[in-house]
Write a structure and sequence with these properties.
The complex is a heterodimer of chains A (370) and B (153). Chain A is an alpha+beta fold and 370 residues long. Chain A has 11 helices and 6 strands. Chain B is of the alpha+beta class and 153 residues long. The chains are: A alpha+beta (370), B alpha+beta (153). Chains A and B meet through strand 1, strand 3, helix 4, helix 5 and strand 4 of A and strand 1, strand 2, strand 4 and strand 5 of B. Strand 5 of chain A pairs antiparallel with strand 1 of chain B, so a sheet runs across the interface.
């Protein structure tokens, strides 16, 4: 998926709660999902992808990886550009219809894990090409969307995907728990030359991901072999549960020093050799949605770009989910789809036994940012 | 200290085959079974009890360590992306991005010098459901990569 449901990290727990099982019945419930979604128009683009065949990739080797957020690249002059990352599978992008997924699931609920492991074991190493979109930093008022909005795609005809390298997967984990379970990723962990954009969802995730690793794996999670950098690590962070070694002492630092500045052989600051990227920012401190929300444009465009069978799947999957929902929720969803594309709204309405003409608009005050 | 419940048969020399018949040795291969304390384990089938049908005794480090570790096998599940699979691999840079040298846009070392390889670990995942939920569900997928670069991860 190249986009997300929401654009402000404030909504992250809400969107996840809506999709998680009901806290009483412990079952995933379309009525809860579409209750939230029908009042969250920013989700229409993502919903259009999710209920199409793209919502069920065939397996892990045939999926595209998407950075979703705008990040930055910084050159040796300290100049930044906005970038978006795409990992294109050389195996091809292959998705499943609901019926195909049902067939697989009836006999195997680990098929994707099995496929990846077996491919690597037999030496059929999967590959992806990294392709990068580049945009000059700035607000880009000429675009009908905000480049920092993670619910939007950067149109590839305007911002071509430029190949930059390839990834090859050639070794399976030796132990699932030690590696796959304990590995700790973070959207906010970047090396020099890479930087953040002001995407508000990215900035919230930047805190959240490393925070959850400290809770989930433990405060010394970065000392585990799967997470540890393969270079000098010299900090004055000490102790905590499961301290395995003392950072810096193995690199020749004085073990008595766990503070800085010091003249007694503790870790010293590294002088930068290249200028920092120092964007200028000013404005009032507010709680305010971005001005160019354009919630429906790319959703409608995607509906029209899909092949006929993808569109048919999308309608069929939405109708079967929305049939489980209350009438007011169904009507709100139909109205949103009609704003994306009239045919889109009409087909979902027909599937639900509704007349598009009878569906009332969703007031802006009800649907946030409609 | 060795646990007395292990009796006196363990040599502690790291081989499990001592005292075994030739046919046993052919089947039962591998290093000596130990506790986390390094004690050789003589009996991993029967708990230590008062008589063969009597109550279990607490003086039994081997069992206490085994069961209490088992009780703690799981860590908190990821609140999202619990279901996943991972693999090791490498990233190989083209040294360029499209038709231009990559250094025009970024100084990040993993992208410089055409052909340079950086080791990585990737984890694919689904988002909403638990650790062994079906991999056929309608759900976004995660695609997380950790690069072990010369400037850190």
């Amino acid at each position: 998926m190249q986009v997300f449901f929401i654009r402000d990290a404030m909504k992250f727990p809400d969107v996840v709660h809506a999709f998680k099982p009901d806290p009483v019945t412990n079952r995933q419930d379309a009525n809860r999902i579409f209750d939230f979604v029908s009042l969250t128009p920013s989700a229409m683009h993502m919903i259009t992808w999710l209920f199409s065949p793209w919502g069920i990739p065939q397996d892990y080797r045939h999926i595209r990886g998407s950075g979703v957020h705008a990040y930055k690249w910084v050159n040796d002059k300290g100049e930044g550009v906005l970038v978006k990352y795409h990992w294109i599978p050389k195996q091809g992008e292959v998705n499943l219809t609901q019926e195909q997924a049902n067939q697989i699931q009836s006999t195997n609920f680990n098929h994707a894990t099995q496929d990846l492991y077996e491919a690597i074991e037999r030496g059929d190493f999967p590959e992806w090409e990294l392709q990068v979109q580049i945009m000059e930093d700035g607000e880009h008022p000429e675009l009908d969307f905000d480049p920092l909005d993670p619910t939007k795609i950067w149109p590839p005809e305007l911002f071509p995907l430029r190949p930059a390298g390839k990834m090859v997967l050639n070794k399976n984990p030796e132990n699932y728990f030690a590696e796959v379970e304990q590995v700790a990723f973070g959207t906010g962990v970047l090396v020099d030359g890479l930087d953040f954009s002001d995407d508000k969802l990215l900035q919230g995730r930047t805190f959240s991901y490393s925070d959850t690793q400290r809770h989930r794996v433990g405060s010394n999670y970065l000392q585990l072999p799967i997470n540890a950098p393969r270079v000098n690590v010299s900090t004055n962070q000490r102790d905590g549960q499961m301290t395995y070694h003392v950072d810096s002492v193995g690199h020749g630092a004085n073990a008595h020093v766990n503070y800085e500045p010091t003249s007694r052989g503790g870790p010293q600051e590294v002088k930068p050799t290249q200028p920092a990227h120092e964007p200028e920012v000013s404005g009032r401190v507010v709680r305010k949605e971005i001005s160019r929300v354009n919630n429906y444009g790319q959703a409608g465009e995607r509906y029209r770009i899909f092949e006929q069978w993808e569109r048919d799947e999308l309608i069929s999957n939405l109708v079967s989910a929305l049939k489980q929902c209350n009438p007011d929720i169904q009507e709100r969803m139909v109205w949103h789809f009609s704003q994306c594309d009239m045919d889109y709204g009409r087909r979902v309405a027909e599937g639900l036994g509704l007349r598009l003409e009878d569906v009332k608009p969703v007031p802006v005050a009800v649907a946030h940012g409609a | 200290m060795s646990d007395s419940s292990n009796g006196g048969g363990a040599s502690g020399n790291g081989k499990a085959t001592n005292g075994r018949s030739t046919s046993e040795k052919q089947v039962l291969q591998g290093p000596a079974l130990t506790t986390r304390q390094g004690h050789p384990v003589n009996d991993n089938q029967n708990n230590r009890t008062v008589g063969d049908r009597g109550p279990t005794v607490l003086e039994n480090y081997h069992f206490l360590e085994k069961i209490s570790h088992f009780d703690r096998e799981r860590i908190p599940e990821r609140v999202v992306h619990a279901r996943g699979a991972g693999a090791h691999g490498y990233f190989q840079t083209y040294g360029s991005v499209g038709d231009e040298p990559v250094s025009k846009f970024t100084r990040a070392k993993l992208f410089q010098q055409k052909g340079k390889q950086t080791p990585l670990f990737i984890r694919f995942s689904a988002v909403i459901h638990g650790g062994h939920s079906p991999e056929t569900l309608r759900d976004p997928r995660g695609f997380a990569i950790k690069f072990y670069t010369e400037d850190g991860n």
